[in-house]
Amino acid sequence: MKILMLTSEFLPVNGGIATYAREVALAASRLGAKVTVVAPGYGSSAHVDDRRLPYEVRRFNGGLHSRRDVPAKIALTRRLVSAADYDIVHAADWPFFIPLALSRRLTDARLVMTVHGTEINETQKWAKRLAIRMTGVFGPRMEMTANSAYTHDLFRARFNIPAKQVRTVHLGVSEFWFGPCVERDLTRRALGLAPDAVAMVTVARLTRRKGHLATLAALTKLRPAVRERLHWLVIGPDGETDYVNELKRAVARSGCNVRLMGALPAQRIRDIYRACDFFCLAGTWDPSGRVEGFGLVYLEAAAGGLPSVATAVGGVADAVIDNETGRLAEPSPDAIASAIGEMVDDGIKRMSLGKRAWSRARTMHWERCAAATYYLPLPSEPSLVPDNDYNGGELRHGRVMALPSAAGSLK
User: Which DSSP string corresponds to 136-162?
Assistant: First the structure.
């Protein structure tokens, strides 16, 4: 099977759509498909890492998408789909939806588009809706995949798409996050965590919709004895300057054990996951319309054996199953505080949730996602680490697949 994937985000960018495009292409290649990825060049003339990938990457001149790029992407897509006999052409994100729709008469290939969440609300402006309608973007030949039940329902409601035309295909978690790491006790000592301390970790860009301030407000509501035991490690690059400054001031006056660690390499994040006790990302509804369509980072934390405290916002309920792989709370400080307090107080339940989170993450591999997206056959015995690699909260070293796969899901 020959697949052409069109994406406006790719390596060296990490997170969100870039992670999705990279991992689905890798998984489809492992399942026997011949994949060609078309991605922006980000102004670089040499992409040495592209040669390490088991599929072809073609770069076009461009970077972060803007409306000015649409004509060039239309011309590029028309040229590519007419130059080769592809079985599937996949627009991995919305900037290629219109170009693919305008190229549909040039190919007999299956035409697939993936919606991730945020772009659904961002395309509600009248000019974008008009362009979508005039170009027949969601016409009968187009097959749509959505990354969560929430994204599926929101997309259908906003654009009146027939149910048979949209499928929900959950995202996956890279083998990287199950890989070997520094011993848990060594990492905890390096972090200055006492043996009886409970460590909560958050990995996300410091931006308003990720809910760091709401989480901090929740910590101040905990009983003093709980608050003293809890250490919050916050990992992620800075977002909006005003928000970051507000967060730093709030941390300074909170009296809570909070460490803002900035951006860290993926290997270091993996080590910290194994040294912590649970994950927390309590996102909030954003007035701008940006939304968490799924939440890859919850699966990455689960691969480290961590249950999650999350808020029932967007498609997060598909990534975190309440009372099975973590706790889902309403996006309010009181509700978040209750879920965090339960995690700190009940170590037995916390470990049970972590074990189930790890087991579920093991089933959420990218091959499953690629197979469902492209209708590729899955092997009868997928290459997975056996269940006995999870042992009562301690994870032994998992096997890392030999194919190159960068990691990270910050956006």
Answer: TTT-TTEEEEESSHHHHHHHHHHHT--
